[in-house]
Amino acid sequence: MRQAQDTEPAAFTRGEIPQWSSLHGIVRDASPATASHCARVARLALELAIKTGLRGEELRAVAATAMVHDIGKLGIPASILDKPGALTESEFARVREHPQLGYEMLRWACSTAVCTESVRLHHERWDGRGYPYGVSGEAVPLIARIIAVADAYDAMVSDRPYRKAMGHEAALAEVRACSGTQFDPALASAFAEIDFEMINESDLALQRSAA
Ligand SMILES: [Fe+2]
To answer: Per-residue confidence at 66, pLDDT binned at 50, 70, 90?
Structure first.
């Protein structure tokens, strides 16, 4: 099993923020739906990071990383990403390449290894049954574990071409049910404590409908 280089968020220099913001702009131009999803995940990830006790530069790192966590999807054909039905095994294999593709795109733009590493590992699971490497537990950087929870929640409460969105309570129950398997247990319980009304559901819904 491959080990992550860092396990905790590192300082994210202010000088890198404009670079990462422009990267989000590139995602938005190429795929508005992916950019909207990234923005919603960043908002949720930020709240979860605050609940987890992260502060200052660490929060900046979480938000900036989440804003571009799916940039690798720009390397996946739209015919696969937007397919209005179940994916074939080979199509799903292409989709599973996006964390590594994102890492390859970002590693030249960011000197903070834990951020690029978190893009690469945002689909890993606490129990090691995720992809692309099967890294488990705290060997997955905290930023990646935070994004994994926010990402899964947003996916559940969003419409997909092949299924309707799940409600907030049902999605929250699913996060709890996957505590200790898919998600870091501490993060799964902290996520349930987020004040979802306070984060302005209408903003999130607006971004969802614009996608
Ligand atoms: Fe992803």
So the answer is: very high
Backbone dihedral region for residue 184 (phi beyond 0: left; psi -120 to 50: alpha; all else: beta): beta
pLDDT at 203: 60
Mean pLDDT, range 180-191, rounded to an integer: 98
Task: Tell me the whole-structure pTM to 2 decimals.
Answer: 0.87
* Burial of 193 from C-beta contacts in 10 A (0-12 / 13-18 / 19+): exposed
Phi, psi of 177 (to 5 degrees): -65, -25
Confidence of residue 58 (pLDDT cuts 50, 70, 90): confident
Ligand 1 centre and the CA of 19: distance in Å?
20
Domains of the chain: 16-210 (1.10.3210.10)
Between 106 and 170, residue with greater pLDDT: 170
- Extract the tokens encoding 100: 């590594």
C-alpha 154/C-alpha 199 separation (Å) is: 14
Cα(78) to centroid of ligand 1, in Å?
15
**Ligand 1: distance of its center to the CA of 41 in Å?**
10
Q: Which residues surround ligand 1, an ion (CB under 5 A)?
A: 70
Q: Provide CB contacts within 8 A for 139, sequence distance 6+.
A: 1, 3, 4, 7
Q: Which residue has the tokens 């590693």?
A: 107
CA–CA distances in Å: residue 203 to residues 148, 173, 197, 209: 21, 22, 10, 10
